[in-house]
Write a structure and sequence with these properties.
five-stranded mixed sheet; alpha/beta; globular; single chain; two-stranded antiparallel sheet
Length: 206
């Protein structure tokens, strides 16, 4: 979220509704499959999914990272407050884990601001928070498809009196994706470092 731009209820309410709806649908689907005698995959299967975006070294797909836990965050490199705070907390949470556990985690930062964030810029930005963190982006229409799949929200906000030209309001959620490519948990903005570390450990244990 941009600096000095408090989130309005009208902006957060759709995200809350979508998140609740996704969880409800997940429970319904799990109960149905159980009634049919089918094994349900662990995690939230009603949102998320595979995607392919661009890194500084070429295209990267979520499926390429199977076998690792992927904490995924949507934001933008010019974000003055929320993104640095969230990515810093994510990095701190990963560092609370053992070296062996850290080797099984691949953090990913997806920029929703492809007009300013090139893959090369994102590689440097993401790596500054945690070595090896992937910085990805793509054309707007591709980003829109991915954010819709994950029910992530963002909005370009013009700033007429600023040299930046515009800021980006966006939801702030870490999607903890399991080794099977399925979201295992969500860490909303305000989740503490120890709480996020526990979510990562839980995903690693599956």
């Amino acid at each position: 979220m941009s600096a000095k731009t408090p989130r309005k209820k009208s902006q957060t309410l759709p995200l809350v509704i979508l998140a609740i709806s996704a969880l409800i649908l997940g429970v319904v689907a799990a109960n149905y499959m159980k009634s049919q005698g089918k094994k349900t995959p662990p995690g939230i299967t009603t949102i998320g999914g595979n995607f392919t975006l661009q890194s500084d070294k070429g295209p990267v797909s979520l499926s390429d990272l199977r076998g690792k836990v992927v904490p995924l965050y949507f934001g933008y490199a010019s974000c003055p407050d929320v993104c640095p705070t969230s990515l810093g907390q994510l990095a701190s949470a990963i560092r609370q884990l053992s070296d062996e556990q850290q080797q099984q985690i691949q953090p990913v930062f997806v920029s929703v601001d492809p007009g300013r964030d090139t893959p090369k810029k994102l590689a440097v930005y993401a790596d500054a928070f945690y070595p090896g963190m992937l910085g990805l982006t793509d054309k707007k229409e591709v980003i829109d498809d991915v954010t819709w799949s994950y029910r992530a929200m963002y909005k370009i906000v013009p700033m007429e009196d600023s040299a930046m030209g515009y800021s980006v309001d966006h939801s702030s959620t870490v999607y903890v994706i399991g080794k099977n490519g399925v979201i295992q948990s969500l860490a909303q903005h305000g989740t503490t470092v120890p709480e996020l570390a526990e979510k990562l450990k839980d995903a690693l244990a599956l």
